[in-house]
Amino acid sequence: xxxxxxxxxxxxxxxxxxxxxxxxxxxxxxxxxxxxxxxxxxxxxxxxxxxxxxxxxxxxxxxxxxxxxxxxxxxxxxxxxxxxxxxxxxxxxxxxxxxxxxxxxxxxxxxxxxxxxxxxxxxxxxxxxxxxxxxxxxxxxxxxxxxxxxxxxxxxxxxxxxxxxxxxxxxxxxxxxxxxxxxxxxxxxxxxxxxxxxxxxxxxxxxxxxxxxxxxxxxxxxxxxxxxxxxxxxxxxxxxxxxxxxxxxxxxxxxxxxxxxxxxxxxxxxxxxxxxxxxxxxxxxxxxxxxxxxxxxxxxxxxxxxxxxxxxxxxxxxxxxxxxxxxxx
Amino acid sequence: xxxxxxxxxxxxxxxxxxxxxxxxxxxxxxxxxxxxxxxxxxxxxxxxxxxxxxxxxxxxxxxxxxxxxxxxxxxxxxxxxxxxxxxxxxxxxxxxxxxxxxxxxxxxxxxxxxxxxxxxxxxxxxxxxxxxxxxxxxxxxxxxxxxxxxxxxxxxxxxxxxxxxxxxxxxxxxxxxxxxxxxxxxxxxxxxxxxxxxxxxxxxxxxxxxxxxxxxxxxxxxxxxxxxxxxxxxxxxxxxxxxxxxxxxxxxxxxxxxxxxxxxx
Amino acid sequence: xxxxxxxxxxxxxxxxxxxxxxxxxxxxxxxxxxxxxxxxxxxxxxxxxxxxxxxxxxxxxxxxxxxxxxxxxxxxxxxxxxxxxxxxxxxxxxxxxxxxxxxxxxxxxxxxxxxxxxxxxxxxxxxxxxxxxxxxxxxxxxxxxxxxxxxxxxxxxxxxxxxxxxxxxxxxxxxxxxxxxxxxxxxxxxxxxxxxxxxxxxxxxxxxxxxxxxxxxxxxxxxxxxxxxxxxxxxxxxxxxxxxxxxxxxxxxxxxxxxxxxxxxxxxxxxxxxxxxxxxxxxxxxxxxxxxxxxxxxxxxxxxxxxxxxxxxxxxxxxxxxxxxxxxxxxxxxxxxxxxxxxxxxxxxx
Lengths: 329, 265, 350
Prior knowledge:
The complex is a heterotrimer.
Chain A (H helix, E strand, L loop, with lengths): L26 H17 L2 H41 L11 H8 L1 H34 L5 H12 L4 H11 L4 H10 L12 H26 L2 H9 L4 H30 L2 H6 L7 H11 L3 H28 L3
Chain B lengths: L5 H30 L15 H6 L2 H34 L2 H16 L2 H11 L11 H26 L2 H9 L4 H29 L3 H6 L7 H10 L3 H29 L3
Helix pairs in contact in B: 1-11, 3-4, 3-6, 3-8, 4-6, 5-6, 6-8, 7-8, 8-11, 10-11
Chain C lengths: L2 E10 L2 E11 L4 E5 L6 H9 L6 E6 L2 E2 L11 E3 L11 H11 L4 H14 L15 H14 L4 E5 L7 H17 L4 E6 L2 H7 L2 E6 L2 E6 L1 H6 L4 H6 L4 E7 L4 E3 L2 E3 L11 E6 L5 E2 L5 E11 L3 E8 L2 E8 L10 E5 L5 E5 L8
Parallel strand pairs in C: 3-8, 3-9, 6-7, 7-8
Antiparallel strand pairs in C: 1-2, 1-4, 4-5, 9-10, 11-12, 11-14, 12-13, 14-20, 15-19, 16-17, 16-19, 17-18
Helix pairs in contact in C: 2-3, 2-4, 3-4
Membrane topology (chain B): Multi-pass membrane protein
Keywords (chain B): Cell inner membrane, Cell membrane, Membrane, Transmembrane, Transmembrane helix, Transport
Family (chain B): Belongs to the binding-protein-dependent transport system permease family.
């Protein structure tokens, strides 16, 4: 083997054995060689040997996947299962559907369910429209500072949601900017803005907080779009609305679907925004879980609401993943 | 590109500002303004003071800041390790198995954080593992929540990684372990740091699960902010919120510095 | 070290991309795998490297059956089209990578890296990062990296196709020089460019549609192609449908003298004549027709002449008074410059 060493200067080729020079003696190679010899000699066809090897490699890979899956199972899946179990164990003892019956019968639960179910799609729709418009301007009608705005959107994403509610308290709160402006101008004793403690306040906060979640994938998709397409279209006489509808929107659909479904699920699960409005009038499912578990110590009841909330969000998210895969995204 | 006439451009920009500034820039400015004020009954806050910051950087608030930083650090490192391992292991699996694994690891995104908090509380308030009342239950819940994000962003980076590099390494005689340590992980480093930054920021701002299970001696910043606003101390709460934002931004900035140095093209 | 394909078949999802390839590259030989994209040539190379697993057949390096060995145990050197230099390592660390993987001593690594960089003329760039190099320089580093481990077999997968035309011809000369300096290394060179194959290769294997079409020295393939595909893929060719006669072949009414090599009179065949071997004016094997197009290419003129409905190309040394479009001209070629090929059928013969 060393005779075949290709470089001119050969200080000591034997010191660095080319793999071929190692010979079949080294452990794993010998095993492999034996395995394939057996395959060729009569134990089976070569094709079977190939399949056997592939199966062994596959098993080894599955083994490597095991530790993280085990961690996930112990610290995430098992607790979820316990929640499911607890939802069937009323405080009075035994196993029954009693907690479900109790929770479903309560007006508070039905109201929370309804609030959650209408708020989330409404906020998602708002985020999609607003996010699409804003991303469109940043990407296609760029202005000085558009890049900084795009970076600001990223920064916005890294802040917690309750900050928005906190800010809105100062803008539209009982004593805040908007009401202060009104009383200053009109001399009235109180301003007209009191929607903050209603579902509309939550809706505004959710749209504000989650719109960047739509903008980010959209901006990424727009960056991929070949601007020559737009130039070609406008050279063919298409006007802006037509270009948006015919060229940009189709390209943006996967990003809109991805962002929209994420926002929908996050809105269904949103807790901080609702908690910070501090309004007893707005209760969503996550809020109900918190108050049942922590404030009322009604664990079976909290678990029932949790099961409903999980089914709702995971069901929707699963549906989205299936649909998007069908659509080839 | 899309709008050519000057007038139309200006119209679009004005519309943009009208939508963007009140919705996104204003909230952050308002929190900042409030943190430096004692009253807000007009258009602008009044009674300038820095007392809130004095309070927000000592005692209870300082304790909460340390708690948040330590929790976020621990949770994001753990999540990065588990998420990266899972993503690398999943990438080597065949398609059907990979899908199952991806679905499993994305699940914590879809499950409400409050429910994650509740489930961790239920599961670890009883034997065999009793964590309730300790800081570990908070760190554990945060790790579970952010692992999904770490896994997703590392997975996306692995898909983008050109297989030519690992093949070149293998052709040069590098075994799987060397290919992983010397080639794949270094090439993934920019994405790994980005994922770490994301996890850190998420953990810093986590409120939903934390509210379910924090022990009195391990109170992160968001809980403190809620406590302040709940008792009506909005201005003091704002100062703590600004501290939270600043700490998050500082860490993100540091991470992005590391990241620029780690990106090669 | 020799490379041997022993009826190697590769299939993806039931799609055969390499169909029972039998081929041997002798020790120290440069073998070009030449073919259009999708012909299976890169698959063949990747089967040697270990990145694709044959569905059947064996791959041998020297006497060793490597079919079941993972890539990192095969001890080959490889250079791919996009180089795949590790962007996070300096040039010297890229070149040292294979040596470190083989656990060479530090002194040895230093020596070998210096040698490999010296050989490829990149010694001055050892401390640079790949992104700081031009395409041609990256190419040299990729070659140095592959050579540093002293492979007995070097696999080159379209190594020049990412370079522009001028650099390409320069690198072609470099590769030829490297091979003169490393005469023991067997090289498998995948390309779709006939010039590269003709220039570098000791032998060329022509591939098409997952199969080996022909294999021989460049001269053999050029002078006496085995079939129409080879004739048209290796160099330019006039392929004329003729009928075999007792003394030669007939193209329409024109009677041509060629070596029939025992073909049965009356059979249909294809006559292959290289354009640069076709002359203008009277001579043996005269063909008359009208000029349908004339292209001036600097040192040559190419004439397209319509002969009884068949286009015939002639590459002529630059003409002082070239014919015009529509002119009636005569062309001729020497009987020994034409090859009679079996008609139509692709010719699966080897």
